[in-house]
Structure formats: structure tokens, C-alpha cells
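Z., the sequence and structure:
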Amino acid sequence: MKTEEYGNFEEKGDIFHNGGVKICFNVDQMFDLLENLIKREDFIFRGCPEAKYKIYNSAQRYYIGNELYKQVKAEDMNKHYTEFISNLIEECKNWNNSTVSNLLLNSGINGNNCIPYLSFMQHYGVPTPLIDFTYDPYVALFFAIDGETYKPSDVEIDNYFSLYYTFQSMGAFAGWQATFDEKFKNNALTYDELSYNEMQILTPKRAELGIINNTNIINQKGLFFYNNDPTLPLEENYLEFIQYLKKEMGEDKMKEFAITETLLNCINFHKSLIPYIKKKLDDLGITREYIYPDFYRMKDKALTSASIKALNTLVHVSDEKPFWEV
């Protein structure tokens, strides 16, 4: 088994709202659209360098790519995958004489709360069931094009990258939140308890979750989408969830609760637009230096600026001769 990809835009159109939309020009109009979405303060975004990529998290890619699922029967895969994630968290806690645990505990984090550990692991590249999203569409665009160049391909979808977005007040999210809150008590949540949620948005706006434990998440305006399935990408797990709801509550009830049939909106940008979009982002201050702040450079900048101000400080001029002329 391998992680799957979209072969064409027709496939994406069946999964995402506007999944088949392709932008080859009029980028400024798209930036106007994004500005309007920012003003509504309800949208979250994800950029992806390849339009063909399905939205897997890093734990899924590792679990599938290394064929760990072959160790168990199909009916035991969910439990096996959950244990795999739990073991990763425990290894993170115990690493280097519990360095990470001590860091988080000294920050007031409950040691039985798995979410800060998952956030920390995500930052340092340990596979997790989390998917990075951001409140800022320009940051999402940065991640989609950072280090990318346009290399023309005969396969149409290879010539595009994607921006995904959704709104947090969607009805499905309220149901997930209720399940989450039922388990999240006393600022503690084991991974086994978290896995009762099929999907969940984890936001730094809830300080008790302890997501903000590295500096990058500040400028990146980051948050996470949790997907508990071992093999289904986020968008397909949501579709399975919707099919279940249709049977349980019916389409009329779904509309009443504002539960949409697709999880994400999609805009596919032609890669030939990358230089222009990069210039637009540079003008907005969305640069690599901003996204990945280097605090050693802060030291140099602070010393240089403070020294210049000290050297240019106006002091009281005495009538007495300078000591070297006495």
C-alpha cells in the first residue's frame, strides 16, 4: 500500500468544493478574495506545493510507507495505529532523561495531556496525526511555494499547487468539539481518549491545550487538524463521516445544522505564478525570516542598533577643555 495522489482535477472536483478550479492569471483578484476571508475571522487555511497530494498527516505517511499495518489483521489496524502514536508520545516524554517532559511540566502543562507533546513532536519532525493549518492565507501560500520552482509537465495536475480553506463554524466541528470536551477534563487527555475523535481542530486560542510551545507557531499563526484514521487522508475520512451522518440523521437535518458535504474549499494555482505570488508575499512581510525567526540574528540586530544609538547620543558639552588638551 502507498499513499495515494490525485490523477486529475476531475477527481479533486468530487472531493473538494471548487476542487477543479484552476488559476492561471488574475492573481490580484484572488488576493482580494483572501483579504475578504481574513476579515470574516472564521477561516483557516493550508497550502500544499502539489495539487495532486492528498492530505495525509506525517504519522499516516510513515505508517503506510513502512508497511507497519501488515503486522496486524485489517480489523485490528485502528488499535495498532493508536498504539503506534501512543508509543511515539511515550518515547518523546522519556527522551534524554525526560527533557521534553520537564520542559512542558515547568511551563505548567499537565503531564497527562498528550496534545502539547504532539505539538512539540510536530515541530521537530516526529510523525504525528496532526496536520498544519494557519489562520493566515498568506502564510499558507508561503508554505505552498517556499523553495518551489515551475518545471513544466505533460501531466496537467503536476503544474499546479493548492490552497485549501474551511470555516471553523461549520456544523460538523461542533459535534467533534462536544466529543472532545467530554474527554478533556482537568486539562488532561491521553492519546487513547483523543482517538475517540475521528477529527478535531486543535487551536492555540484554547490556552489549556498547551499548543504554543515553540516560537514558530506565533508568526505562522498555526493550528492543527487532527485525523485519527490510519490510512484515509483527511478529506476522505470526512466524506466517510458524512455518509454515516446521512444515514443517521438525513440530509435535511444536516442542512439545518450547517453540516456541509465537503470539508474544504480548494484553489489550484499554476506554478508559473510562483514568482509573482512570492513578490506579493514579500511586500506583505511574509518572508522566510519572518516565518522561521532566528533569535541569534535578533542578538546581532539588537547589539548593532543599540550600539549605533549609544554612539549617536547627544551629551552635555562642558566649557572645560577635553582632558587630552589639558
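The CA atoms of residues 115 and 209 lie 6 Å apart. Residues 9-295 form one domain.

Let me know what you think.
H.
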